[in-house]
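Thread: quick sanity check before group meeting

JM: Hey all, I'm pulling together slides for Thursday and realized we never actually wrote out the predicted structure for the chain we discussed last week. Dropping the sequence here so it's in one place. If anyone has concerns about the input, flag it before I start.
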Amino acid sequence: MHQTLFTDGSKMKRSIRYILEISLKLVLVALITLTSYEVLNRVFYNNEVSHGDDFKSLPEDSIDVIVLGSSHAQYSFVPSFFYEETGLNSYVLGTSCQPYQVSYEMLKEALKTQQPQMVIMEVFTALPLRSSCEGDFCYIMAEYQMTGKEKINVIKMLPEEKKNQYLNDFFTYHNDWKTKESFEPLNKEENEISTGFGYIFQHARAKLPDNWWHASQYGYDIDIEIEEDDLESLNAIYDLCQKNNIELLLYKTPVDSFTREDQSMMHKMWEWADEHSVKYIDFFAESKKLSFYMGIHSDAFHAYINGASMITRRISDEVNTYEIESYDSEILKENYETEERTYTYYALQYETYPITYLKRLENTSGIVIVSYQASGSQLYKTLYNGILSLGVDSNSFINGSNYCAVIDAGKVVSEGKNTVEVSNADYDVSVTENGITINGEEHLRKTNLLIIYYNKDTNEIVEKQIDQYANMDYGREFYDWDNDLDF
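JM (edit): ok, ran it. Output follows.
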């Protein structure tokens, strides 16, 4: 009996030792794997595809609107401005010269983690003009952002030699260890997201150029049809949206070098949209109404930040006609508002027209300070209404009377006739008849109307001085801020 107990005890000890050995080996393997990942990630990580991580870092089921399309979508749609105007969460899943076949795979990829209520699609790559940017990178840059079957489907769109290289060679497989699916979860912290939301920022001109012009428009008298692959993919996108109760909205940004053939193809796209009861926005047709100019709001191909502001606002107005309930995400809200304040600063720096300047300020989460010293005459109606749109009450600001106010995130914090003072943890503002002082920095009045935008995150300031006699009511689209002349 003692022998039996001794034998049983030995077996138990051996079992415990065996379990400990296995556990230690597992821990060792895990440590080696994590260490190898960190080393390989530093050596092989490709910063050019970091945007592929951004979408994956979003909380699941947090995005209301997905934007698809080429670089024209990436440069023209600003998710932080869209949030400012609509309260909806959006992300631009655009890539350079994105073919419709890729847009379809991109939408399927998005639906793995998100349940958007709307897809906004920019339609450039149906046009013959896309030949100016077609290449292997159209597929390579897209597959960086994908996983699983969708990634493989896009790689298979490459020429045979490139396709085999990307499918079979681990070391040249997009030269980016971090986007290998097996490594994705290892470096992801809870509630950590990457900002950007797919928008590509482009500075506007600091001064008016020598020439500016509306995007050329031609007739659509050329007999042309949507290419078979494009039409098949467009129908697939439509069907996928229908299946998932997703609204579809199309748009085309203004570009130069547009031909009659391009115009005819765009018209075919709008015919398809009408046949499927899909709404669309033709920014070629609306560029005059919006006062959107090549050379001022665009480099003639991609939108500058001030042009993107105009395009995003027009799209927002259209989206606001739909009934879309936003997913509530505090972390996205915080990131959208931070980016909005930054991009608003850049958009205002280069704004050429006071009314558009005021529109950009309407829903900003930044600080707006207004100081107006009347001189026996009223402001032109358009300019006066622009100031009211900032959240100012017409009973407080009577046209033709002195007025000053500090407006924080669309709410009037303090207002008066000639002087105002606001002091809190974020900023100190003092308004007098002579000008505006922010955190000790003085901005002296040069004209009747002084408007300042202040980004409390970065302490960046945009100062604009407008003469009250500037006539904004009769189609004046530009303003010489230095000489206080409209023309």
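AS: nice. Residues 354-486 form one domain. Confidence is low (pLDDT under 50) at residues 169-191, 483-487.
JM: adding both to the slides.
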